[in-house]
Amino acid sequence: MALPKFIITMDGYFRLGMVNQHKDLLKLGDQCIGGGYYHFDYTTNRILLDRESYDFGRPKWHLLDTLKVPSVYRGLRLVYTYDDNFHDDFIVSEELKIEYYD
């Protein structure tokens, strides 16, 4: 069953889509460094990210300086919420440089 999932790659690409498995978002040569699930919050102009990929684990944000985001999502803030009581939300849009691509 296709669900709204995202991944990040070692090259800094952020990909999301309705897929069965996180690996369905990979392109040839990609090295995945984590993923999870997303939903859009249009009232606050955010893409809310959470949980983790069964195959790739939580996103390893600390390995990136820049996140490459499809330009269609320009203007939306990215926020990753950890599902534990130890981590604060990671405001991706503030912690990483965002580059947009077509």
Task: Describe the 3D structure.
Strand 1 and strand 2 form a beta hairpin. With 102 residues, the protein is mostly beta strands. The protein has one helix at residues 92-95; strands spanning 3-9, 14-19, 32-41, 46-50, 66-70, 77-81, 90-91, 97-101.
* Helix-strand string: EEEEEEEHE
- For the record, give the distance between the C-alpha atoms at the N and C termini, rounded to a whole number: 28 Å
Number of helices: 1
What is the residue-averaged pLDDT? 97
List keywords for this structure.
mainly beta, two-stranded parallel sheet, 102 residues
Brief write-up:
It contains 1 helix and 8 strands.
Please give the structural blueprint.
Blueprint: E1 3-9, E2 14-19, E3 32-41, E4 46-50, E5 66-70, E6 77-81, E7 90-91, H1 92-95, E8 97-101
Parallel strand pairs: 4-6, 5-8
Antiparallel strand pairs: 1-2, 1-3, 3-4, 6-7
